[in-house]
Specification:
Blueprint: E1 2-7, H1 12-22, E2 29-35, H2 41-49, E3 53-55, H3 64-77, E4 82-85, H4 94-99, E5 104-108, H5 120-127, E6 131-138, E7 148-155, H6 162-203
Parallel strand pairs: 1-2, 1-4, 2-3, 4-5
Antiparallel strand pairs: 5-6, 6-7
Helix pairs in contact: 1-2, 1-6
Bound molecules: glycinamide ribonucleotide.
Length: 204
């Protein structure tokens, strides 16, 4: 199974998935990092890991359709099966959604549907919630919408600061995303072999 990870920033989730791949906890290959912020720290991580990077500046294209067409070409060249959004701070457009229907996943640092969009941890902190968490979902055309695949709740303690809450959320993200990706891979692999068996039965 070949993965492409999309990131715009620090890439700590990308690193956690890459570590899980190296340790055999995720049975896949990260064949490409796609980055819409040339120079982002995620790129440095990819280079250190020997993972190819496709980096682009959106404003150099006529629009989303144009840069997503180029992304799809790169993904197809690398024979990517699944797209993993890891802090890719951009809405996915119809070009990518059609090419990778039900094969694009995202992580978000809140219990969706609460606090979608940017700075979800800050939004939750400002709202004074006592419980927040992490969500992994299938991507559709909305902002942090789409069917939920896994969630983990985190209690906000009286002693917490925004910084300590952020650390607690990141620790959960770095465990939950690799674990969920491995579950998705196992599901796809078993569905694939089931389809093959059905095909075998129908031609026998
Ligand atoms: C992560 O907390 C991720 O959940 C969030 O961006 C951060 C990226 O961190 N994504 C969103 O807010 C998506 N709406 P990272 O670059 O260190 O992985």
């Amino acid at each position: 199974m070949k993965l492409a990870v999309f990131a715009s920033g620090s890439g700590s989730n990308f690193q956690a998935i890459a570590d899980a791949v190296q340790e055999g906890r995720v049975q896949a290959e990260i064949a490409l990092l796609v980055c819409d912020k040339p120079g982002a720290y995620a790129e440095k991580r990819a280079k250190a890991l020997g993972i190819p990077v496709f980096s682009f500046l959106p404003k150099e294209y006529s629009g989303k359709v144009a840069f997503e067409k180029e992304i799809v070409n790169r993904l197809q060249q690398e024979e990517i099966d699944i797209i993993i959004l890891a802090g890719y701070m951009r809405l996915i457009g119809s070009t990518l959604l059609h090419a990778y229907d039900k094969r694009i996943f995202n992580i978000h640092p809140s219990l969706l549907p609460a606090f979608p969009g940017k700075d979800a941890i800050g939004q939750a902190w400002q709202a004074g919630v006592k419980v927040t968490g992490v969500t992994i979902h299938m991507v559709d055309e909305g902002m942090d919408t789409g069917p939920i695949i896994s969630q983990e709740a985190i209690s906000v303690k009286a002693t917490d600061s925004l910084e300590s809450l952020t650390k607690a959320i990141q620790a959960v993200e770095h465990r939950l995303y690799p674990d969920t990706i491995q579950c998705l891979i196992e599901k796809r692999t078993s569905e694939g072999s089931q389809n093959q068996n059905e095909h075998q039965t129908s031609i026998n």
